[in-house]
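Lab notebook: predicted structure, single chain.

Context: the supervisor wants predicted structures on file for every construct in the current expression panel, including those that have not yet been purified. This is the next one on the list. No modifications to the sequence; it matches the entry in the shared construct table.
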Amino acid sequence: MPSLRAGERHLRRLLTPPDGRPRPELDQIAAALLDHNPRRALLYTRESKEAASLLNDLASGVCELSHEALDARSAGHRRDLAVDWFRSVLVAAGILPVRDEYLARLERWIEYKTAALDDPEHRQLLTAYARWDRVARIRRRARGKTITASTVDITQVQISKAVLFLAWLKNQGERLAT
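Prediction complete. Output recorded below exactly as produced.
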């Protein structure tokens, strides 16, 4: 395994902007990764193409340093473990604000699920049900605390069953209103 110094040089090279001028926020990222777990940071930057791409994009300004920009890198419903680990290190270091990751993942999954619906009426119904019933209820019950993985799982099952029900209705030649 290469030395930790070589890993730090590699990490700093990935976080060097194209113009070569140092930026404090990029130094903070490097410090957070190296302080958190230097060996893991070395593996992260050497073994993961996604991680190297993310760090290059942050350095070049293609990707901003925010939860929303990191969410966009995990498009659809899939999770990118490289992005998840990177985000957790930055949150622990205080570079990114704390947020409820399970709730954020659920909201991204809902967007993905509703976007996949062909019928605009079904998309509208499912969006309303998911956001104004399921997610609103979760937020009320959580009262500012983070939600659990099982809460997300149950909610995803409920929404998936609603999708199946709407598809069944359509196959029967019926509408929800009837």
